[in-house]
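Here comes just one.
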Amino acid sequence: MATFTHVTPERCAQLGRALTAAGLTWSDNGQQGAPQFLTYTVTDSHGRTWRISPATSYQISPSAPGQIWQASCPALMTTTPSCLPAR
């Protein structure tokens, strides 16, 4: 079964600070206590809506352990890992 132990309250706060510092409008669904259900909704400068959620333990590459978030944008029909420092 996939795990989400890498998502901590501090990493959630770190993501929020990074999104705010980038000048992006964002919200979360308040599920930090159950990270498998955690989702952030972010609007980029082009008006596209992105969905950011934690990567599962199976999606985190040993060669890139800092990529604990995944972002997808239906308008672009793509999903990409998002890298924030793993502290």
Helices lie at 9-21. The CA atoms of residues 6 and 32 lie 12 Å apart. The radius of gyration is 12 Å.
